[in-house]
Specification:
This protein is 76% helix and 0% strand. It has one domain. The protein contains three helices and no strands.
Length: 128
């Protein structure tokens, strides 16, 4: 049974680290666009986001760990393991899309001062 615990924890850590690396590399490009001329700021924010990503996802992984084992048999234990790992993957996906949402809003606000002005009307409607 200890091997199932180790397999679950190892799989959670591996998936979390791999997803964090991809998000960190691709997020760095976006953050450099959001903070032009401030690469230190972009790097610092990227590292903070990665640290928060690790804490939330690994915390969820370890919270889901105690309740997955029962003494009813190996098949039930594997089913519970699969359900818990699926929950971890769902949490990773939600965190990914929340990060994308935050990045897109930050980027939109950063580019707002450079947006073109609205087009003035082509005619003037006179008052009656």
């Amino acid at each position: 049974m200890i091997m199932l615990y180790l397999a679950f924890v190892s799989a959670c850590i591996l998936v979390t680290v791999l997803v964090a690396r991809v998000l960190s590399q691709n997020g760095a490009v976006l953050l450099e666009d959001v903070f032009p001329g401030k690469p230190e700021m972009a790097r610092a924010i990227n590292q903070l986001l990665v640290a928060g990503f690790y804490m939330i996802n690994l915390g969820f992984c370890f919270i889901s760990l105690p309740g997955i084992w029962e003494a009813n048999g190996l098949a039930i234990n594997f089913r519970n393991l699969a359900n818990s790992f699926g929950g971890v993957l769902l949490a990773l996906g939600v965190m990914h899309f929340l990060n994308l949402l935050v990045f897109s809003r930050i980027r939109r606000r950063a580019h707002l001062p450079n947006a073109p002005l609205p087009v003035p009307p082509h005619f003037h409607a006179g008052a009656r």
